Amino acid sequence: MYSSKEDEKWAGVPFGQHEELTQRIQNILRDYPFDVTFLKELLQNADDAKATKMYVILDKRHHGKERVISEEWKDLQGPALLVWNDSIFSEKDIQGIQQLGLGSKRSDSDSIGQYGIGFNVVYHVTDCPSFVSKGETLCILDPHCRYVPKADHKKPGRRFEKLNSGFWDDFSDLKSAYLQDDLPEYPKEIVNKGSLFRFPLRHTYQLMKKSKIEPTEEDSLNRKTPLRADYFEKHLTKWVSQLKEAFFFLNHVREFKLLVIESDSVRTQFCYEAAMIGDAEKSCEEHNQKVKEFTAGSASPHIATYCLELVETSKPRKKIKEKWLIQQGIGDIKEDEMQEWKFIHRVKPRHGLAAPLDPLLKDFTGSVFCFLPLPIRSGLPVHVNGNFILDSSRRALWKPTSSSHRDERDEWNKKLLKAISSSYARLLVHCRSYFTKHSYTTENELECSIDGYYSIFPSLFQPKATESRCTTSEQTTVMARKPPQYEE
């Protein structure tokens, strides 16, 4: 036994492995390229929070610097990217967003990745993200422990409650920065409703020099200079124009807008609206309930088929409408009623397909999705979605490192692809009624109907198109009819 004197003599000094938070964030960003992936991750977070609306707002203004929470905060009163959605942060969400590598709803089968590791993409543009929920709670993340009073390495941030009890008055220059100044042109719903995130841009050389989070090699903007608002707007507009396909397999988000604030004016740059046709909303709700009931002990497959209209509005008020046939599924409908699925990290075998009902999209090639689009072509005339296991880049399916060893993740993906094949076969049967009818007025109309139906078959079975005999008006007449509703 050591004596107390010996204990003190050999007490040692503090020692152990550790990693600075800023370095950990830097490492995470290497797996998340600064391109359209940035917006996809934010959209995914909004959908997991069960938001129905999401607005991305580029605020180009410089706000007052006198009445702010610290001297260092003055650097954050310049241009910022704000993201609003109509969901409200729960206490569980607030706790979850503080966990750098874990989401707050990993056990929620309706979630894709709630405020998990993907949220850290915001550090591509900012050093100090924050959010206001329902106008009552302000939470600030400060990994540099620089901008918020009393932030330290144990708790690098601060939470402020009951903001309407004098906070906005005491720090009045923050009001406009968080859209609390009631500018008449603001969308009414974003003031004191839902959740508003604010990401001050690194818009000066001084801010870039201070930051320990540097642009990664995957930074598509190749930034050697500050992220100025005008420059960032061009890239945001480009990225938003690539987001359309992201709405096919989301669970909740039905409206997306890109807004720009300059001086005292607000303009809408881009808008997407996904409208559920007929009983589609009811079908989705029933299917989501089946997903929740799909467990290791009760794995009954289910499929829901419905029609969705996607409306894209861009400046100057150009509007494009597209109709799509969506099929959502869980499990493999070709297997026994009760199935054995070995769940990996609580992942469920969810999958889906999206087929165009618009004649202008007849010859397109689909993409692969993991709820949001991946940079992979499906090689099919439909989009393919699956709850796949991805590699660390989150841009490709998992690949086994050795062919001699059993790989559970690879087996999961293969089994999921088999389930998607079964679902595709069912889709080809169901969609026939979307393209055909009991009688036709002309032979061309009949041929156009047949061509439309076979256009969503795998290319191996596609007949040659009779383009010269099928007019656009006839295509539209056949393919735009109200589709029937199916029940499983």
Write out the strand line-up for the largest beta sheet, numbering strands in chain order: 5-4-3-6-2-1-7-8-9-10-11-14-12-13
- What fraction, in percent, of the residue positions are helical? 10-25%
Please trace the helix and strand order, writing H or E for each element: HHHEEHEEEHHEHHEEHEEEEEEHHHH
- Report on the biggest sheet: 14 strands, mixed
Show unreliable segments.
102-107, 461-488
Number of strands: 14
Distance between the termini: 73 Å
- Which structural category fits the helices and strands? alpha+beta
At a glance:
Helix content is 25%, strand content 20%. The protein is α+β, with helices and mostly antiparallel strands and 488 residues long.
Question: Could you characterize the architecture of this molecule?
Answer:
The protein is α+β, with helices and mostly antiparallel strands. Helices cover 25% and strands 20% of the residues. It contains 13 helices and 14 strands. A 14-stranded mixed sheet has the order 5-4-3-6-2-1-7-8-9-10-11-14-12-13, sandwiched between helices. Helix 12 crosses helix 13. The N and C termini lie far apart (73 Å). The relative contact order is 0.10.
Question: Tags for this entry?
Answer:
alpha+beta, 20% strand, globular, single chain, 488 residues, 14-stranded mixed sheet
